[in-house]
Records
---
Amino acid sequence: MPDAAPALPARLAVIIPVFNEAANVAPLVARLEATLAGIPWEAVFVDDDSPDGTAAEIRRIAARDPRIRCLRRVGRRGLASACIEGFLSVAAPFVAVMDGDLQHDEAILPAMLAAVQDGADIAIGSRHVEGGSAASGFSAARFALSDAGARLARAMLPTPVADPMSGFFLLKRDMVEALAPRLTGRGFKILLDILLTAGRPLRVAEIPYGFRAREHGASKLDATVLLEFGGLLLDKASGGAVPLRFVAFAAVGGLGVVVHMLALGLLGGLLGLGFGAAQWGATFAAMTANFWLNNRITYRDARLSGAALWRGLVLFYLVCGIGAAANVGIATLLVEDGVLAWGLAGAAGALLTVVWNYAVSSTLVWRAR
Ligand code: GDD
Ligand code: MN
């Protein structure tokens, strides 16, 4: 362990997003220390309040080593936004992002720094240039997925990049500071976000490395992360005209209508309930599905869990109950007066509920930032 404060302010700040990586923190710090000898550096771990005690582990090391810091965020989740907040918390002229699970090879950091000092806009740790590899760190399915995503991303990029899906890169702090207000900050692909937001061809240096297998902990990549990837591309392709949260809203709303119609058919057709009762049941089913999906997807970054989840659900039911009553009332009237058939009246009522759900969701239930 080092015994004194560094003689020089950091030249390189390594930003390390972490979620449930307690066992990887100490080994990673030791590796950085070995590989960055001779470069004044610091490391900022950005932890989203991991339940496994990651933050305590970082602070245990930080208490003895002033180069190590812990930025703990509460009530938030997200790899990309963690990286952005890490960037904005440092003063070093060069910043890097690196995973906190030892899958990225820290040994290439000096070469990445040299590349940017020599004029590159960004240095990317790349699995897909001569000398790089990903085989050991990925399952076959994950590799195929990553490959498909990379093809899509490459098609949108103004600069050819072999590994646009990399989560390991280094650039000047000035550049991220300038781009920060326009980054979407959603999902996993912070590099892609930066490359697409820069809006001009960048001088890219790709440095090969072998993506290592994970030894401790588990990957956080899941189906929602993939959805967010699609959202990021859509957002950037539309020039930001379609905000990501709205896309998620619309998708969840669409699914809610499907749930509603299925439930209506089931309750009315199969169970033989009257229209009012069936529409109530269908509304309830759609409301529950919307709450669950919005919590998983639309408000992933402010996701409710534990007691807050139940409080949110009850609140959601309560406020939506007003909308639902109006919904059933109007739909029933439409049917009874013979204005619309069951299907159309049900859909009209459902639509009303979905719009109401949107408004309530973003303001009262999740309080999205
Ligand atoms: N703060 C924070 N918040 N950190 C997170 C979150 C989050 O919500 N989700 C993941 N992380 C951290 C993990 O703890 C890990 O240090 C790092 O981000 C990468 O997450 P993994 O879950 O290990 O992702 P992966 O190995 O499947 O994919 C990674 O490597 C690929 C290859 O470089 C990602 O970085 C991909 O973006 C990258 O393409
Ligand atoms: Mn990983």
---
Amino acid sequence: MKEQLEAIRKGALEAIAAAQETAGLEVLRVKYLGKKGELTAVLKQMGGLSAELRPVMGQLANDVRASLETAIERQSGILSQKALEARLAAEAVDVTIPGKKPPMGHKHPMYSVLDEMKEIFLNMGFEIMDGPEIEQADYNFTKLNAPENHPSRDWTDTFYLTEDSSVLLRSQTSPMQIRAMEGYGVPIRMISAGRVYRKDEVDATHSPMFHQIEGLVVDKGITMADLKGTLNAVIREIYGPETVTRFRPHHFPFTEPSCEVDIQCYKCGGKGCPTCKGEGWIEILGAGMVHPKVLRGCGIDPEEYSGFAFGMGLERLALGRYKISDMRLIFENDIRFLEQF
Ligand code: PHE
């Protein structure tokens, strides 16, 4: 029996040391120490032993049981430590790996130009105003001294929203002149940017929706010199200090005198090229001294106050600023185009 017990101890200890999984270890525990296990089977033969041998064998059997239990416990500890290490290794995070950057958009080039413009005018002491795109014909035309038969009032040119032609999508930001004067009185220095709408076909230089920046200054003693000085300063800030400008007589119903302002072509320097359509000049804005009738209509005495106003197309400004050849690129929002700015 002694040999039997020693054989069980040897075989069991080897099997336990070789066990690689907790489940396998449990199987071994049942196999050797369980009710129907090998050790119990041997103990059942104890009855046939002599009185002297019985306690000796009992002692040995207990010793074997104890050593198997200790071995199982030790192996179990080793296995769970190994499992923990494996899990930690598998779930480890390398904090030194550079992070993944989510793709981020950025400001549309036209709005960058608008922000630049706002900055320039804010530095000159202008305020920024916002106004409605759905406008009354009164503000878009009548209060701006547009005669009843003015071509821009035509249904073929302007988007009307009511049958009686009293409400429309504003065709210019100039109604903001009226809103500014009526709403805030004088003196005033403001710009207002936003969308305007005209029934134009889409081509390289036209779109039925585009953006304008309107400006208005009204105070005592404002002259055409203020208009020229202010606009020249702004244009040179945007297009560079060497930019050559040209003020040309023009007509707008709400300014008198009126002018259009050109810059010498930034592509060819005035020689004539496709960008300036051979002219050497590119028109960038309309301006003029606020018409006395318009001032009076807003409750301002033209004998005491005078002012100048201007309006420019924001898309055209962006085209020139970034030397873009086709206005449609501004609206298409093709990522390949936008990413270049
Ligand atoms: N509103 C005019 C246009 O759309 C531009 C302009 C604004 C002219 C202010 C003079 C003064 O063409």
